[in-house]
Amino acid sequence: MKRLLGRRRNGPGPTGRAIHRDVYNVGTAIDGLEMNDATQTCVDPEPGTPEVEAQHDVTYIYGECVGSSKLPPLEVQSTPIGEKHAGLYNDGLLGQYPYEKTTIKGVPAASFDAGAALEIYTGTTTITIYGDEAGLVTRAAGRLRPAREPDVPAPGKVLNALSAAADAVPVPDALPEPVIDPF
């Protein structure tokens, strides 16, 4: 699965289209990996192109790229569920991208690439966790919490650290049911 670089963030995207999603992170650090980069991407599709070309996400990066890897050890991304879910991953030529259905915090989820990527479908949001190894992804899923408004970067801005209060946000036992069937 290709890696792409809550509080409810409803409002217009760059072209005035409403964006609905909640934003989640795993706090200031996990397994010694500190959150060191957070960005919000807002890209509407070109007129006449499919809606799936849109990209409206908030991504938190944990840890530094090591060695020849161009990818960080952990990413936690929140995207509107209509833009990203397992039901969209069929290119018609190669077929459905393989995944395993599972349940995380009481809601449907899809595990990709032997657990190195996990999509959790909740409310209006797809929470995607990418990691170096499946165990880290699983631990991150257990630590998901809604992001505080001050810890959500503005579109086009970079946030290099979360506030100390980010760790005080309770980790919910369950997440809201998704508004669509993600499969």
How would you describe this structure to a colleague?
By secondary structure, the chain is mainly beta. It has one domain. 5% of the residues lie in helices and 34% in strands. The chain is built from one helix and 13 strands; from the N terminus they run βββββββββββαββ. The longest helix is centred in the C-terminal third of the chain and has 9 residues, at 134-142. Mean pLDDT is 86; it is low at 1-17.
Strand content: 25-35%
Count structural domains: 1
Number of E-type strands: 13
Overall residue-averaged pLDDT value: 86
**Main sheet specs:** 9 strands, antiparallel
Q: What is the number of helical segments per DSSP (H or I, 4+ residues)?
A: 1
Descriptive labels:
single chain; mainly beta; 9-stranded antiparallel beta sheet; two-stranded antiparallel sheet; 13 strands
Task: Note the topology.
Layout: E1 11-12, E2 18-19, E3 24-25, E4 29-30, E5 33-43, E6 55-62, E7 74-80, E8 100-104, E9 107-112, E10 117-122, E11 125-131, H1 134-142, E12 145-146, E13 158-159
Antiparallel strand pairs: 1-2, 3-12, 4-5, 5-6, 5-13, 6-7, 7-11, 8-9, 9-10, 10-11
Task: Describe, in short, the structure shown.
It contains 1 helix and 13 strands. The protein has about 180 residues and is mainly beta.
